[in-house]
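Comment thread on ticket #2218

A.B. wrote:
> Attaching the input chain for the structure job we discussed in standup.
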Amino acid sequence: MAKKNIILGVTASIAIYKSCDILRRLKERGFSVSVVMTKEAEELIRPIVFQSLSGDKVYRGLFDTPRAWGIEHISLAKEANLILIAPATANIIAKIAAGTCDDLLTCIILATKAPVLIAPAMNENMYKNKITQENIAKLKRLGYRFIGPKEGRLACGDMGIGCLAEVEEIIKEVKKNI
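C.D. wrote:
> Ran it. Output below, let me know if you need it in another format.
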């Protein structure tokens, strides 16, 4: 059986450190994983961390020089068997819901036919905001799938909903949807 290709989209949530564990566990289970980071995510963790864990290039900018000739966001979108965004910020959820295509990750998402799993991680007030909830409802109607979030201690110190789902739950959902 051919190796399944997963794109791991990483956005700028404090839960970004859990993306490293998600990447490691997906690789352990035999998946091929390409990491795509947003520019804002790079403010929290350097791409070299994901490059070291994946043993492969980390995709970052829409206009970075591609590894081979081709339109990178299209070729990545075609090769993907599944796209997982973990952590997913309110910003990326809003951009996807609006069809905004202004970075590599959103371009890949709009160009793919693969299932997209979204694992939100944000402050409770942001998650419960009516706009965020409308965006999530819209994406669910369009076939996007969500994992979590869960309740717990948030980065601001408050308790509430907005914590990234447990890594094992995310891995389980990936296996179920690929």
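A.B. wrote:
> Thanks. Noting for the ticket: The two ends are 13 Å apart (CA to CA).
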